[in-house]
Amino acid sequence: MRRLVVVSNRVGPLHDGGKAGGLAVGLGDALRTRGGIWFGWSGEKSDEGTFGPLKIEDHDKVRLATIDLTPEDAEEFYGGYANQTLWPLLHYRLDLANFDQRYENAYRRVNERMAARLTPQLQPGDMVWVHDYHYIVLGERLRESGFTGPLAYFLHVPFPSPEIMTALPNSQSIVRSLTAYDVIGFQTDSDRRNFARYVVEELGGRELPNDELEAYGRTFRASTFPIGIDTQSFAEFAVSDEAQEHEAQLKVLLRDRHQIIGVDRLDYSKGIPERFRGFERLLEDYPENRGRVSLMQVAPLSRSDLEAYSDLRSELEELAGHINGAFSALDWVPIRIMTRGFTRRALAGIYRASRVGLVTPLRDGMNLVAKEYVAAQNPDDPGVLVLSRFAGAVKEMPEALIVNPYDTASLARALQQALNMSREERKERWQAMFDRISKGTAQAWCDAILKALEERADKKVQVRSA
Ligand code: ADP
């Protein structure tokens, strides 16, 4: 079995103390089975940055290796190109994208340095798997430094249509660097199709059978691998003591009222203002819900040093203030916003206490909250998932009530339908989704990508020896 080397922006945690998300669970299992390295940014800044010492944490056969960035790299590569250029662009927000040449230079510089620091850690027979938009060009740099082994890439966020992608200065060179990988994974077929279109229309490549593409004399596989969660564990979290305490506390507070829950990093891709407007419309159009239904929005602050994020926070506080001012009663407040973090178990209890899970991104690669909400429900009395058509998760969860978050009136209608759905219908819809996410777990996702990579590696060896 080949050793696995993972590269991603942040590393770990490896051991699930109830904290790890889907990615860490899936990768942690694969790394423990195969042995290997997980390499990325320490999250720290230092003057030496990527030239400084590696920080090593060994856990049995798995090494966590991280390195600092210089303050300048952290600002221009991470805060700049990753968060202000690629993130908005890949989420279709050209209006928010900042195309600064300094940021692109920093991106290339850091990718190259990270590849240079990874190369001496590699052993013959290793397979390398690079994650997400922070490290698109890293694979090409690894190839240049002589790595010929199996090389995979997974994009956790959407790949927009070429009409959007081509707005990125030097997009051809950036996307072209993906052709250095053997296997490229996307969350949905539509992301995969957008990429294939880009390869054909902008890079002059062509599509071959079996998900293969060819460009610049290289053949590679681009496929859809929707990421999942550790559904079983999350369902168990939801009946843990900690979850039950949280559920009970909310039930006392709610009495016989219903709660709608939203859980998202405070990010403009998540459609939180649209969600608030949909809830406001529910109270306007269906007044019987006044005093009867509340919205709890858990929104941990994210990237708050960037203007787009602090603007969003102000907008949400204003909107919630306005709605609360207009509708509050002596014993009922319509919207609560909480920016604090919760443990996975506490979160599971909160999901389970909520009759509606409201997930309304304007664009989202997958959205794991949708899957967590379903995993946490009580099978005898499950809540209803209301899910944006723009979340990657919608492909695997068609039994949710599917909404267009820009259409406020229809969002309100879906909420009303969710709040009044019979237990029988709730159970039927929930079961179908739960069964699907029980198969499509984080572990299954990881195995599928590694299997695809091994297959291509074997095929390459056969071609070479033929
Ligand atoms: P993104 O990766 O864009 O943030 P996802 O929905 O795919 O969006 O994943 C978000 C993850 O963050 C989920 O696993 C969710 O449970 C977790 N999360 C969000 N808010 C909190 C919070 N306040 N406390 C703990 N975990 C949170």
Automatic annotation (TrEMBL):
One of its GO terms (biological process) is trehalose biosynthetic process. GO terms for molecular function: alpha,alpha-trehalose-phosphate synthase (UDP-forming) activity. InterPro entries: Glyco_trans_20 (IPR001830). Pfam families: Glyco_transf_20 (PF00982). Belongs to the glycosyltransferase 20 family. PANTHER family: BCDNA.GH08860, TREHALOSE-6-PHOSPHATE SYNTHASE. This is Trehalose 6-phosphate synthase.
